[in-house]
DNA sequence: TCTGGGGTCCTAGGACCC
DNA sequence: TCTGGGGTCCTAGGACCC
């Protein structure tokens, strides 16, 4: 918590719906719902006109239709949202370079570098109004709610207090009296599960929470969460505004209107998703070592399976192949409603650099370290044949060693073995390009 | 026919190493 | 030979956020 109110939080009001109303004047003043329109879609954003009918974010579109049948139901136009978001972030960066976007419609701004002179309430309000005006101009009339306070937590709570189109400044020293009467769910990280645990312990408000000892909180909700809650209940929050946050994972998933039962269809869908993930990785110059699939069964139980490569990849056939073999482990006979593929353990360099950089620590289980050669011969994902092991594909390669994952059509994925890259027992057996055709 | 999609962070257990 | 403890990496699942 800072001595001065110098953290600002800005939240665009009903952002997706507002962009739709801006771009299509016939929708202005009318209920608009943006979200999935399929049988299993949910509401992403409801305009304030639609909220009057009880339509809320995360509600199923089916229920939203029941509550407000005359609303316009639209799927998102993410290009337009991204473009508009960029314009908003540019307005914020003109005030201070320290802007941390949380999503397309939300950001923190650290006002410390802004030349504000005094941080008295009048100056802060003027700054907030100036920003809101700037956003309106840059976006063709979108409104935003702004909160200013001594920490991220307080700024965020403040921006929520006078929505929509509001501005609230919480001056230093007034934080705890503001928070105490509020329900524990104002604290970021307290969702339904945590709120229920706290409720059972008789803790409802922030004031209640403040009386609970650190040990007791840790016992209730775990180490990390407990210490966080203990501090936030006292408005203690020193989290910095971080303009550059690194991407940790990239994923694509889809929920299907009817449950999937056909394994070959699932394989095809995973293959297509793997291609989309690889494309996004490449676009951002990323690659990753851990491939994860996500499977949601008909009864909503959600499973994940993952595997970690010896070196990072952005190669679609490799990701697809691993995803498909991970699916083999799962019993999907009851039907699958969601399938997804993700890559994590990201590096901002690609595998080729393994060959040019100095030797990494990591060792292979086959010893001979030859001079780095064969770069193009053993590309990840490439199909290979071993005289004894049979068919497999390149899982990773580097430093004169190629790691192969063997599999057969009959038995599925098999063992992983490493060989010297010049092993006469190992040969490519067909070009990999036939792989990856979606169903 | 309740329950999206893209993320982040945490926990807990096992393997493995020192 | 037995007893341990700590650290790191990996996997699976869950809570949470917008």
Kindly summarize this structure in a few lines.
The protein is α+β, with helices and mostly antiparallel strands and 439 residues long. The protein is 33% helix and 27% strand.
Rg calculated over all Cα atoms: 26 Å
CATH topology label of the largest domain: Alpha-Beta Plaits
Looking at the overall shape, the CATH architecture of the largest domain is 2-Layer Sandwich
Q: Estimate nothing, just give the exact number of structural domains.
A: 4
Question: What can you tell me about this protein's structure?
Answer:
Residues 7-191 form the UmuC domain. This protein is 33% helix and 27% strand. With 439 residues, the chain is α+β, with helices and mostly antiparallel strands. The strands form 4 sheets. It has a 5-stranded mixed sheet. The structure holds a DNA duplex (18 and 18 nucleotides).
Question: Which features characterize this protein?
Answer:
17 strands; DNA replication; nucleotidyltransferase; five-stranded antiparallel beta sheet; 439 residues; alpha+beta; Dna Ligase, domain 1; DNA polymerase, domain 1; disordered C terminus; 4 domains; five-stranded mixed beta sheet; DNA-binding; Alpha-Beta Plaits
């Amino acid at each position: 918590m800072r001595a001065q109110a110098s953290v600002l939080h800005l939240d665009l009001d009903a952002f997706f719906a507002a962009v739709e109303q801006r771009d299509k004047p016939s929708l202005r003043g009318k209920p608009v719902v943006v979200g999935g329109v399929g049988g299993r879609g949910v509401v992403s954003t409801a305009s304030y006109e639609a909220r009057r009918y009880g339509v809320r974010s995360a509600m199923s579109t089916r229920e939203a239709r029941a509550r407000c049948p005359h609303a316009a139901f639209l799927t998102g136009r993410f290009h337009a949202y991204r473009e508009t978001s960029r314009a908003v972030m540019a307005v914020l960066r003109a005030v201070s370079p320290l802007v941390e976007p949380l999503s397309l419609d939300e950001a923190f701004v650290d006002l410390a570098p802004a030349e504000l002179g005094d941080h008295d309430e009048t100056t802060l309000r003027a700054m907030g109004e100036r920003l809101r005006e700037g956003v309106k101009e840059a976006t063709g009339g979108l409104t935003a709610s702004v909160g200013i306070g001594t920490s991220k937590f307080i700024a965020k709570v403040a921006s929520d207090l006078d929505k929509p189109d509001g501005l609230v400044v919480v001056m230093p020293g007034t934080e705890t009296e503001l928070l105490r009467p509020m329900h524990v769910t104002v604290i970021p990280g307290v969702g339904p599960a945590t709120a229920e645990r706290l409720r059972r312990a008789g803790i409802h408000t922030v004031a209640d929470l403040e009386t609970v000892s650190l040990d007791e909180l840790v016992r209730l909700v775990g180490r990390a969460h407990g210490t966080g809650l203990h501090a936030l209940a006292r408005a203690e929050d020193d989290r910095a505004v971080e303009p550059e946050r690194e991407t940790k994972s990239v994923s694509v998933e889809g929920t299907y209107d009817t449950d999937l039962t056909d394994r070959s269809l699932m394989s095809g869908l995973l293959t297509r998703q793997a291609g989309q993930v690889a494309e996004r990785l490449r676009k951002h110059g990323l690659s990753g070592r851990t491939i994860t699939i996500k499977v949601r069964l008909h009864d909503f139980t959600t499973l994940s399976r993952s595997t970690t490569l010896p070196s990072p990849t952005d190669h679609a056939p490799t990701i697809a192949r691993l995803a498909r073999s991970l699916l083999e482990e799962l019993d999907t006979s009851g039907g699958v409603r969601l399938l997804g593929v993700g890559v994590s353990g990201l590096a901002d360099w690609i595998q080729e650099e393994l060959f040019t950089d100095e030797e990494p620590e990591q060792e292979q289980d086959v010893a001979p370290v030859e001079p780095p050669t064969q770069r193009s011969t053993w590309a990840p994902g490439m199909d290979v044949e071993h005289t004894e092991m049979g068919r497999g594909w390149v899982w990773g390669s580097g430093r004169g060693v190629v790691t192969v994952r063997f599999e057969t059509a009959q038995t599925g994925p098999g063992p992983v073995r490493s060989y010297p890259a010049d092993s006469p027992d190992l040969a490519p057996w067909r070009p990999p390009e036939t792989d990856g055709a979606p169903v």
